[in-house]
Amino acid sequence: MKTRNKNMMMLSQKSYVYLKLLISLLLLTNLNAYANTGKGQLSQLCPLITGQWQGSAANPSGNVKSVETAIMCSADQRNLYISVSKGARFNNSETWWFRLRGQALELIYSDGINADINQSLTLYQQGDGFTFLGKGQIQQRPALVRLSFDPIDSADNKRWLWQQSAHYLDDDSDSYQVIRAIELNPLN
User: Fold this and answer.
1) What's this model's pTM, rounded to 2 decimal places?
2) What is the CA radius of gyration of the chain?
């Protein structure tokens, strides 16, 4: 009986190692899907999303709030500024500043309460959508971060969905979890 239990434990350990290897391969495949789509440029994204927007912001727990979002690009299109209105998450507005420094794309995020977050990202274009990918921390947990801007099917293609997702590296999940999604509908 002891030999059988020992063999089962060894099998379980081997299965666990194989499972982790499979998850790693799936994760790399997911990242390679973005790598094969082609790198995007801020100069491609800027003219598409610059403007004043309104819509709902929602998180997985079902909290939905109406927000206004202002998006502006610098004249040289090397800086993209996004301001999400007061009340989206905190009493202060949020600021997302994407900037090119040389060939590196950086994000500085500020909510006016917590310390600013600095992160290196890569921008990919997939079809009509754009995705920023990077590695960082969310709520003190190591994560792969995905910020995607996807057009919402409409006659004039002037609506967007901005999804903020994370794949936490300290768990065995093989997929991204949506942290928040924001509708971007033109402000009338």
Assistant:
1) 0.76
2) 20
Number of domains the chain is built from: 2
- What is the C-alpha separation between 54 and 61, in angstroms, rounded? 21
Non-local CB neighbours of 58 within 8 Å, separated by 6+ positions: 64, 65, 180, 181
Containing 146, the helix (H) or strand (E) segment is strand 141-151
Residues 128 and 114 in one domain: yes
Give yes or no: residues 31 and 49 share one domain.
no
- Distance between CA 51 and CA 106 in Å, rounded? 21
pLDDT, one tens digit per residue, over 19-38 is 333 333 333 334 444 444 57
Range of the domain at 7: 1-36
**SS3 assignment, position 38:** coil
* Cα-based angle 179, 120, 99 (whole degrees, multiple of 5): 100
Residue 32 zone, left/alpha/beta (φ > 0; ψ -120 to 50; rest)? alpha
Output the CA–CA distances (angstroms, integers) from residue 13 to 1, 6, 8, 27, in the order listed. Answer: 18, 11, 9, 21
- Residue 138's DSSP bridge partners are 141
CATH of residue 160: 2.40.128.20
Q: How far apart, in Å, are the Cα atoms of 154 and each of 14, 55, 144, 149?
A: 50, 15, 30, 15
Q: Mind listing the pLDDT tens digit for each residue in 97-145?
A: 999 998 899 999 998 888 999 999 999 999 999 999 999 888 888 999 9
